[in-house]
Amino acid sequence: MQANYQYILDRSAQIARDDNAIVLDYGCGAGEIVAAIRARGGQAFGVEIFYAGANSREVAQTRGLLDDAIREIGTDGRIPFDDNSFDFVVCNQVFEHIEDLDPVILEISRVLKPGGRFLCLFPTWGIIREVHCGVPIVHWLPKCTKLRYYWLLLFRTLGFGYHKEQKSRQQWAADFADWLRKYTYYRSRRSTRKILARAFDDYNSMEHDYVAFRLERKGLTSAARIVRLPIVGLLVREASRRYGGLIFVVRNRKSPSS
């Protein structure tokens, strides 16, 4: 399983600290995390918009999760669960696809119990390499210009890029320029923190913890211990934010206005 999923599963168990905790995966895609938690005997649900740029709906349906464990978010953005339904919410690589984050934060807060925790991983505007196509700083360039296309084409010619799928360089660059324009909305760390503050407290940066987790998975336990040291952790956090984005845990307030 992808390292992000493994990290979320591990930290969910640690942070929730309750075998009966009910977990929601916001933007669950095809339901990998939901299926993994349920396979361990946990209670997990997912919600997804199922946008046109992915085949998540079909995969979730094949897994038998659609409409029960995984529910679709309506056009009004409302999460199809009652208030205070979940002990823990996770979100993996979703926020960069949401144009208006404010109502999403309030919805997550609504379905999360008072004092419940929210773990989120996603790239911000400040990352050096765009995480979906693998090309440096293309997301810093204006959306509605040809500049992005030529930038993508240049780096594709130099050997960069993900999901090439036997496409020509020109077609790959054109497709990714269009996909990034339609489906990505990068924002700064500061604006993200400001939006989160409407409903959540106790912001805890977890980037160094994620790096240590990855090192431990590779058997590099001594390196992981060094990464967890306070001063080293500060440097690792900044480097991780530049490479992959933010990873944080926040606590839900009793109400968005409290």
Summary?
41% of the residues lie in helices and 17% in strands. With 258 residues, the protein is α/β, with parallel strands linked by helices.
Plain-language structure description:
With 258 residues, the chain is of the alpha/beta class. The protein folds into 2 domains: 3-124 and 186-206 and 245-252, Vaccinia Virus protein VP39 (Rossmann fold, 3-Layer(aba) Sandwich); 138-183, no CATH class. The chain has helices spanning 3-16, 32-39, 56-62, 101-111, 147-157, 169-183, 189-196, 207-217, 221-227, 230-243; strands at 22-26, 43-48, 70-72, 86-92, 112-122, 200-205, 246-252. α8 packs across α10. The longest helix has 15 residues, at 169-183. The chain starts with a helix and ends in a 6-residue tail after the last strand. The model has no long low-confidence stretch (mean pLDDT 91).
